[in-house]
Specification:
Blueprint lengths: L1 H22 L1 H15 L5 E5 L7 E5 L5 E7 L13 H9 L3 E5 L13 H16 L5 E11 L1 H11 L2 H4 L10 E5 L10 H7 L20 E7 L8 H12 L4 E6 L6 H4 L11 H12 L1
């Protein structure tokens, strides 16, 4: 009876999660996270400070033995999301044998959430990992940075614009690789939130990752979908062309069906369908270890 109750609860939570993903992202993520905690709890060390600000916290999901590290920067249009909502992403990477780090970062409408504040947060999180992850079963020499959507933009800015990692005594070469999922790497803000975050217009060239590609970038994997109607496919095409022109070790995979949010939920085996995002990421990482 107890097992049946758990199964019914999980089904209800997943159904609610899929429904809420359409209309309320936060509730949908809560439902999926709750279901995972019931079915597949994994060890974590939560709310570790990587900086002095109240939002500069991260969670670590350590393997039993030292393992390569994935830092996952979630998306959310620079205004949504918290690290604890992305347990499903941590679980997906953890199942592949990686020690996983989920950092939080500043978000709109906090008036301090002006570019490049979240890129500064990302660099500080990377520095914390390089200095401390060996205490949590992670190999500091095998660190991969993965981001989705807004998080993919931050990921690529850290890989291309050296100022952020340099400020922490690091360089893009200290990353073993970067993976961008449905990232807006080169766009002109046309929505009140992105205009508030990246404006005024004179500053827009500063947040265009294409302007910084010089050949010193780490190995890069760019994932996108033809069905993504929120972030144009040209972002992947232009970034891949820029990296190739500078001789950077890079790959691009274009899927047929996942929508923009599906590009992150399909990392997890509960939601993956005919696409193979996790398989492509795992293959890319293993070739670079």
């Amino acid at each position: 009876m107890k097992n049946l109750l758990i199964i019914v609860t999980i089904i209800a939570l997943l159904a609610a999660g899929l429904t809420w993903f359409i209309s309320d992202r936060d509730r949908g993520l809560w439902a999926v996270t709750t279901a995972l905690k019931v079915t597949n709890p994994i060890n974590s060390v939560e709310d570790l400070a990587y900086g002095r600000e109240e939002w500069q916290k991260l969670d670590v999901y350590p393997q039993a033995e030292s393992a390569p590290v994935i830092i996952f920067i979630h998306g959310g249009s620079w205004r949504h999301g918290r690290k604890d909502q992305y347990l499903f992403a941590a679980d997906a990477f953890y199942r592949q044998g990686y020690t996983v780090v989920l950092p939080d970062y500043i978000k709109y409408p906090d008036q301090r959430a002006k570019y490049p504040s979240f890129a500064v947060d990302g660099a500080k999180a990377v520095a914390w990992v390089k200095q401390n992850i060996s205490q949590y079963k992670g190999d500091p020499d095998q660190v991969f940075l993965v981001g989705h959507s807004a998080g993919a933009h931050t990921t690529m800015m850290l890989a291309t614009d050296k100022q952020f990692l340099n400020a922490e005594g690091l360089a893009p070469s200290d990353l073993k690789g970067v993976i961008g999922i449905a990232g807006p790497y080169s766009f002109i803000p046309d929505w009140k939130v992105t205009q508030a975050v990246f404006g005024p217009p004179a500053n827009y060239p500063l947040m265009d990752a294409l302007n910084y590609v010089d050949g010193d970038e780490p190995s890069t994997l760019l994932l996108h979908s033809k069905a993504d109607v929120q972030v144009g496919q040209y972002n992947q095409e232009k970034m891949q062309a820029a990296l190739e022109s500078k001789g950077v070790d890079s790959e691009a995979v274009l899927y047929n069906t996942p929508g923009h949010i599906d590009m992150v939920t399909h990392l997890h085996p509960w939601f993956s369908k005919e696409d193979n995002l996790m398989g492509d990421i795992h293959r890319f990482i293993q070739k670079r270890l």
